């Protein structure tokens, strides 16, 4: 890499491509609505494919619609280094979440072609289908099938809110390929992504070196009290499910803090029934989200909450049901790949720090199939899954340069 | 009253009329959907009018659609004793809330006619328009206009969720009268109503003698934090509006208990935004309902909550807005009328206790215009505003007998 350490990708070209892609499936507030397997997703894929073909890449397409744009290496035996993320967006999503990782991969190829640099290992730019999971649950669906987490039949049968099936919609937009999903071997996988959190910006760092992905536990609570009139029910005769929820939320916060600094906990989803100003809530359904990079911590938090919630509900005469509605184990990324990212940031002179990814990413599943690491760049105010999501051109360029150096180091430049 | 103390209304006849009225605007689960100014309300009014005319009563109708069915007294100078409640229901309401008070009044007339009893004062059975307030806000609208709490123009302009105006709908169903609202004088007003709370049943009492109506304060809170990802936002960087709401709900409970036994407090309405499992709530809107029969207590509770909520939000970095969205002063019913109710229960041998009405009732507004009292009977499990609302035939009969004796004592039987 000595001879390569001065190499840079073209940040202007990358930014132009990001802006070009953002024209497809525009949102209503400056962001994007390019949900998976919509016509707009099809148009976004076609543009990516056109750009890849212009660079002489061979496009592969698997039965889950994952796209693999391949630049050959010099060694026919060498497994490819893969790089990528996703082009689909939230319904009111930003222009960079996922897209930066795919077009950053493409920018690597453009730079290599422009400079006529050869690598021993092939380099493959990937667009994973349905990372967002808002149209078809769950998130990271196609990388999950690729990694053997879900079956393809199950994925095909997932329905959107209109009752349309994933498999049918994949076929409809013309991106159901013949290559059996998960059969493609790789040497390593790198994913560049915006942080979707506030840490890098707050710390003034250019680059996040992602060492772990947080494990997740989603437990849905249903508290059952008694609907009754807020005026005519004396305090001692109330079974206020809303108050029970309040006490459990306080406990969630206490438990998460007790595992500082890496554990987090909150409830984002809260539904109160009947939700009328003059009726004491007879039922509240809410989901507690606990995360930690340590599975033992997650299990400890779940156990403490289950015990504490039972005590609260027993004292208040409330019914309590808990259902685990989601979860994944913490991820530890590959040491060699993580070092490649850290070394790239270091050699390029970018400030950097280790990060634990709080959100799920395709890399978290792919890590089960191949050595994997992630690069993160800051995003303004930590805002993501929002049309106002913003990054600077410099952040995008720095992240892509680090991705480039990590990838070409791993793919081995042929001098 | 000595000669009258053995008189009883006809509980079977009353029950049959309740069941007959319940056939109009049936609900989907055994109750009723006869919302104000719908075709079904018109049909309910017509049936009431037919029954009144069969008893020889003269029907008056005011410009707010309030119906006044009058049985003449022997003294042309004497002001009428009025008795009644409302025939409109919640969208998923019960068969007794309101209806018992109107048909209980009619049963008094039927009994007096059957026994050929004359009273010095006329007796007028009233059906107040739009007590429920679910189709056109607020509740107790027409009794409020009658009592001068609201203007008629404002009431006419109230719109339902389809944008239809109260005044137009009143005209459409044919119940906009010519008599100017609020001009009708009265000697006294009595309202029989189901308790809509659990006290009488729990205490094993037949009759509630309502001495006060609780005052109400509705304050709507808007807490503003920051939407952010539940995974990628470290605990110290969160502004969790949901957690702020939880802390304020706990404070509401503490404050209400500090004014035991008569004060109550809770939040029935809670909306969390964006209400997604993986987004820390950036905004929560909820309404705190405080009630007490003592205005000083209500003011103290409001002040303590405002101060405590500010401390909570300041510590958490949350924005706080408070808006008073509803309220009425406590009501003290007329001592003479209340005594008439208590004496009636006593002389009829029914167990009874004083009650503070936690819910609002037409009687709370009419009390501003004339000496007023209320009789309450138990309801099963305190359940109301629910199709499963239930009372026993015996409870209805006992309440109506007490109403009857209170009314005829006040209207003065002419021997």
Structural overview:
The structure is a homodimer of 415-residue chains. With 415 residues, chain A is α+β, with helices and mostly antiparallel strands. Chain A contains twelve helices and 17 strands. Chain A has helices at 11-22, 39-54, 99-114, 141-146, 152-157, 166-172, 199-203, 241-257, 295-316, 335-347, 362-366, 393-411, and strands spanning 58-61, 67-71, 81-85, 118-119, 123-127, 188-194, 207-213, 215-224, 228-229, 264-273, 279-280, 283-292, 319-328, 331-332, 352-357, 372-377, 413-414. In chain A, the strands form four sheets. In chain A, strands 1, 2, 3, 5, 6, 7, 14, 15 and 16 form a nine-stranded mixed sheet that branches. In chain A, strand 1 and strand 2 (67-71) form a beta hairpin. In chain A, helix 8 runs antiparallel to helix 9 (295-316). The first copy, chain A, is elongated. The mean pLDDT of chain A is 96. Chains A and B meet through strand 9, helix 8, strand 10, strand 11 and strand 12 of A and strand 9, helix 8, strand 10, strand 11 and strand 12 of B.
């Amino acid at each position: 890499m000595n001879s390569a350490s001065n190499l840079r990708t073209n940040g202007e070209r990358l930014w132009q491509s990001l802006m070009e892609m953002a024209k497809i499936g525009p949102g209503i507030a400056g962001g994007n609505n390019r949900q998976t397997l919509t016509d707009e997703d099809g148009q976004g894929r076609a543009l990516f494919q056109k750009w890849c073909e212009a660079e002489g890449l061979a496009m592969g397409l698997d039965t889950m619609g994952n796209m693999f744009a391949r630049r050959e290496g010099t060694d026919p035996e060498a497994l490819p280094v893969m790089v990528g993320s996703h082009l689909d967006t939230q319904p009111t999503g930003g222009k960079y979440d996922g897209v930066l990782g795919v077009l950053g991969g493409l920018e690597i190829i453009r730079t290599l072609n422009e400079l006529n640099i050869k690598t021993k290992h092939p380099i493959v730019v990937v667009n994973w289908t349905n990372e967002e999971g808002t149209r078809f649950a769950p998130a990271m669906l196609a990388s999950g099938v690729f990694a053997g987490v879900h079956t393809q039949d199950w994925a095909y049968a997932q329905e959107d809110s209109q009752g349309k099936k994933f498999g049918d919609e994949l076929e409809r937009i013309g991106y159901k390929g013949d290559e059996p999903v998960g059969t493609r071997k790789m040497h390593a996988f790198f994913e560049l992504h915006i942080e979707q959190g506030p840490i890098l910006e707050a710390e003034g760092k250019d680059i996040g070196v992602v060492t772990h992905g947080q494990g997740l536990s989603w437990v849905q609570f249903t508290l059952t009290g008694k609907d009754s009139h807020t005026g005519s029910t004396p305090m001692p005769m109330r079974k206020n499910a809303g108050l029970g929820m309040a006490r459990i939320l306080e406990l969630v916060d206490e438990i998460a803090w007790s595992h500082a600094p890496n554990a987090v906990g909150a409830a984002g989803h809260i539904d109160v029934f009947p939700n009328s100003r003059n009726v004491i809530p007879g039922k509240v359904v809410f989901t507690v989200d606990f995360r930690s990079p340590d599975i033992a911590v997650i299990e400890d938090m779940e156990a403490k909450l289950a015990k504490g919630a039972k005590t609260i509900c027993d004292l208040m005469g409330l019914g309590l049901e808990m259902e685990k509605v989601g979860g994944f184990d913490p991820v530890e990324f590959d040491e060699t790949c993580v070092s490649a990212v850290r070394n790239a940031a270091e050699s390029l002179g970018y400030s950097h720090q280790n990060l634990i990814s709080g959100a799920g990413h395709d890399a978290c599943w792919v890590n089960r199939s191949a050595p994997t690491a992630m690069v993160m760049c800051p995003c303004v105010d930590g805002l993501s899954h929002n049309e106002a999501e913003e990054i600077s051109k410099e952040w995008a360029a720095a992240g892509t340069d680090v991705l480039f150096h990590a990838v070409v180091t791993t793919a081995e430049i042929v001098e």
